[in-house]
Write a structure and sequence with these properties.
Elements lengths: L1 H21 L3 H18 L4 H9 L5 H24 L3 H15 L4 H23 L8 H14 L7 H9 L5 H9 L1
Length: 183
């Protein structure tokens, strides 16, 4: 069950990344990306960024953390393959290349800071969800806003960036994912 939730979380974030790229990024793409985090929260899936916090707090062991990362990565890979099968590949690929190109010359410190901002945004979304913060009946949609914010800010999300890496072929930028992993 644990491995399945990690795979499903990777697929949800992969779908979010596909939607972001399909819409060419920008506001609509960022909002679409927020949908992926909403799916993870609503279905209580295991996303590496959330499990990293659980590992730091001593709630899970390092093996569970690695299994989560690998499951998320496999989910991303599946969505990459499904994205090609959808034949929306050119539009998605162009946006992924644009995203990775914008980041290609950034120094370690900026990538690190962007990863921290992403983590803060994700934690805010999780806290909003868990505490049922809402305005009227807008609760689920409010949890999407922090994810939308980090996408608009160009922040690095170690799992979502795997999708952009696959589509862009910018494998020399894998170091950026590793930097985002450590913050």
């Amino acid at each position: 069950m644990y491995k399945g939730r990690a795979l499903a979380a990777g697929m949800a974030i992969g779908l979010a990344g596909l939607l972001n790229c399909y819409f060419g990024g920008g506001y609509v793409g960022a909002i679409a990306f927020g949908f992926g985090l909403l799916v993870v929260l609503a279905l209580k899936l295991d996303l590496f960024t959330g499990k990293m916090r659980a590992w730091i707090d001593g709630e899970i062991n390092w093996k569970e953390l690695i299994i989560t990362f690998l499951g998320n990565g496999l989910g991303i890979l599946l969505m990459y393959v499904f994205g090609i099968a959808l034949q929306a590949y050119p539009n998605i690929k162009e946006t992924a290349i644009k995203i990775m190109l914008m980041r290609s010359e950034l120094p370690f410190s900026i990538i690190y800071i962007r990863g921290i901002i992403c983590g803060i945004c994700v934690q805010i979304a999780v806290d909003m969800w868990n505490k049922n913060l809402s305005i009227g009946n807008a609760h689920p949609f409010l949890a999407m806003l922090p994810a939308t914010a980090f996408v608009l800010l160009g922040c690095n999300h170690c799992i979502a960036d795997l999708l952009y890496l696959f589509y862009s072929g910018a494998f020399k930028q894998v170091w950026q994912i590793l930097v985002a992993l450590i913050d």
